[in-house]
Write a structure and sequence with these properties.
alpha+beta, globular, 16 strands, six-stranded mixed beta sheet, single chain, 314 residues, 9 helices, CNF1/YfiH-like putative cysteine hydrolases
C-alpha cells in the first residue's frame, strides 16, 4: 500500500493523475486540463485486443465500413477477435490487429472524454512534418505522412501513436491551440517538437512562453539502449549531447529522449515550470503500456498507445 501511495504522489508531483472508466485507464496531465485542454495518454488496459497471443487471422484484412461522422465502424466487434482475451486497448496497427478490435478500442478510449470528439491522427514516418488540422476535411484524412499535428478546432482530438517513442502534448491557452507530437530518436534528432512549436507560432501567433507541455510515458534512459547510428544522429543534432547518453558497451549507450525533448522545448522559449514529464517507462511497465522493444521479440507484434489533446468541451 505504501508503494501505491508513493507512486500516486510521484505522479501528482509531476503533474499527472489517472482517470479510469469501465476498465479503461488513461494518464492525464492536470496542468493542461486546468488550462482548458482535454488530454490523455492511453494505457493498454480495458480493450478487446489480445496482443500477447497469436495474431488474429483477420489482421491486415480489409477494414470494415466506417461511419461517416464518427470515423468508426457501426458493426459490433467480433468476440475477442485476437484469440485469448488479455483486454488490451490497442488503438492502431491494422497490420497486427483486426480493424474491428481497433475501432472498438477507440470507442472505449473516447468515452473517457466528456462530450463528443472526433479523433484524428496521421501516418507516422519518423520524420519532421507537422500537419495543420484547419478544417473537418483535414481531420478526416488520416493517411497523410506527418509526425505532429496542430489545431485550434473544437470537437477535435489530435493524436499520435507510440510504443516506446516519446509523445508530447502541447497546449496554448491564450490562442486556444494545441498539438500532439511523435518524437522517436529520429524525430528528436530532427527537432520535431521545435518544428511543432514553430508551426503553432506561424498558424496561430503562439508565444512559446504561454505553452503548457506534457511529455508522456516512453522508453526511459534506464532501459533504452541504442547503437552507434543513434549516438551519431543525436550527437550531430545537439550541442552538449553527452548528457543524453550513459555508455553501456562499445558503440552503445542508454539515451534520455525525455531530457532531449525537454531541452528542445526550453530552447523554443517554453517556461521550465510549464513542462511536465511523466515518470513512467513503457519498457519497465508492460503491465500498463505497450513496448515495441519488449513485446515485438516475444510475440512478433505489439500494440499502439495514443496520446491525444483538444479543447475541453464547455
Amino acid at each position: 500500500m505504501d508503494k501505491i501511495i508513493s507512486d500516486e504522489q510521484i505522479l501528482a508531483d509531476s503533474g499527472f493523475y489517472w482517470r479510469e472508466r469501465d476498465g479503461v485507464k488513461v494518464l492525464v496531465c492536470r496542468p493542461l486540463e486546468d488550462a482548458g485542454f482535454a488530454n490523455g495518454f492511453s494505457t493498454r488496459l480495458g480493450g478487446v485486443s489480445s496482443i500477447r497471443s497469436v495474431p488474429p487471422a483477420s489482421a491486415g484484412g480489409a477494414a470494415p465500413e466506417k461511419n461517416s461522422t464518427s470515423g468508426f465502424s457501426d458493426s459490433p466487434p467480433p468476440a475477442h477477435a485476437g484469440g485469448t482475451d488479455f483486454g488490451d486497448l490497442n488503438l492502431a496497427g491494422f497490420d497486427e490487429d483486426s480493424a474491428e478490435n481497433i475501432y472498438e478500442n477507440r470507442r472505449r478510449f473516447l468515452r473517457l472524454f466528456d462530450g463528443d470528439y472526433k479523433l484524428t491522427s496521421a501516418w507516422q514516418v519518423h520524420g519532421e512534418g507537422v500537419k495543420v488540422v484547419a478544417a473537418e476535411a483535414d481531420a478526416d484524412n488520416t493517411e497523410e505522412k506527418f509526425d505532429a499535428l496542430i489545431s485550434d478546432l473544437p470537437g477535435i482530438l489530435v493524436g499520435v501513436k507510440t510504443a516506446d517513442c516519446v509523445p508530447v502534448l502541447i497546449g496554448d491557452p491564450e490562442k486556444s491551440a494545441f498539438a500532439a507530437v511523435h518524437a522517436g530518436w529520429r524525430g528528436t534528432s530532427r527537432s520535431i517538437v521545435r518544428r511543432a512549436v514553430e508551426k503553432m507560432r506561424e498558424a496561430y501567433g503562439t508565444d512559446p512562453a504561454d505553452l503548457i507541455c506534457a511529455i508522456g510515458p516512453a522508453a526511459l534512459c534506464g532501459n533504452y539502449e541504442i547503437g552507434q547510428e543513434v549516438i551519431d544522429a543525436m550527437s550531430n543534432a545537439f550541442t552538449g549531447h553527452e548528457k543524453y547518453f550513459t555508455p553501456t558497451r562499445e558503440g552503445h549507450a542508454l539515451v534520455d529522449l525525455h531530457l532531449a525533448n525537454e531541452d528542445l522545448l526550453l530552447e523554443c522559449g517554453v517556461k521550465p515550470g510549464n513542462i511536465h514529464k511523466a515518470p513512467l517507462c513503457t519498457m519497465e511497465r508492460t503491465d500498463l503500456f505497450f513496448s515495441y522493444r519488449i513485446e515485438k521479440a516475444k510475440y512478433g507484434r505489439t500494440g499502439r498507445l495514443m496520446s491525444v489533446i483538444g479543447l475541453a468541451n464547455a
